[in-house]
Amino acid sequence: MDFIQAFSLDNVRFILEGFYMTLKVAFISIVLSFVVGCIVGTIRYTKMPVISPILGILVELIRNLPLLLIIFFTRFALPDIGLKLDAMNSAIVALTLFEGAMIAEIVRSGLNSIDKGQIEAARSSGLSYVQTLWHIVLPQGLRRMVPPLVSQFISLLKDTSLAVVIALPELMNHAKIVIGQSFSYTIPVLLLVAILYFAVNYALSLAARRLETRLV
Prior knowledge:
This protein is mainly alpha-helical. The protein has a single domain (3-215), classed as Orthogonal Bundle (MetI-like fold), CATH 1.10.3720. Helix content is 79%, strand content 0%. It is built from 9 helices and no strands. It starts with a helix and ends with a helix. It is a multi-pass membrane protein. InterPro entries: AA_ABC_transptr_permease_3TM, ArtM/GltK/GlnP/TcyL/YhdX-like, MetI-like, MetI-like_sf. One of its GO terms (molecular function) is transmembrane transporter activity.
């Protein structure tokens, strides 16, 4: 183990550049997958004719495919139909599709967990279906969604490492390159990578607990 050489200024800067790419891809994917998941999950909850069953099939299909396969598809298969994406955008599209399907199920389950009696009471008091959904169902469902949503976001951040297979210059890719300089760098570099992942994921967990406490 050679901590001094492994943590040279150039190596640390290079690893942090990869970490920045990881955070960038994760942040964009989290935002997009949350939006997609909320829309799809809400539509499935409302049981819209035709649209809801089709979305249900797509969600189940995506959820039961390996993320790695979806990453390969967006990077290498889409160009065959005229959609050529670079490594970063391929990773974002793949993560958004996969995590969006997961979040859609979280949203649908959270909305379904609300007591039907409250919905009936709201409708009988004169609220429309949309008003009931917005003012009664969604606020309560959100409280129950926070823990699984944060867990899914943490999984998404860790899943960005799979994009190393399409040469995305993210944290694991840069760590692999540094380790390639000398096998004595393996343990120091992997320890640094573990610390970086842990710091962000633990911060997300703490933020989720605080948000959950405020919502209760």
